[in-house]
Design brief:
single chain; about 70 residues; mainly alpha; 5 helices; about 75% helix; globular
C-alpha cells in the first residue's frame, strides 16, 4: 500500500504531509487518530484531507481505493 501511496503522491503532486495523511487514511485511520500520530491538530488533518480530495478529484473516502487502484 505504501508503494501505491508514493505513486499517487508523484502522479497527483502531493506534498510529503499529504502523502502521510493519504497512507494513514488508506490504512483506515480516523482524522483524530491521524492528528495524534502526526502530532498536528484535527483541523490541520481536515485541511490535508480536503486538499487530497481536491487533487485526486474525489469527494469521499470510499473513492480513495478506486483512485489508487487506477
Amino acid at each position: 500500500m505504501q508503494t501505491l501511496c508514493a505513486k499517487a503522491a508523484r502522479t497527483y503532486d502531493l506534498t510529503r504531509r499529504e502523502e502521510d495523511v493519504l497512507r494513514l487514511l488508506v490504512e483506515g485511520r480516523t482524522a483524530p487518530q491521524i492528528a495524534e500520530e502526526l502530532v498536528v491538530s484535527p483541523n490541520t488533518v481536515k485541511t490535508h484531507v480536503r486538499n487530497l480530495y481536491r487533487k485526486l478529484g474525489i469527494n469521499r473516502r470510499a473513492d480513495l481505493a478506486c483512485r489508487l487502484g487506477s
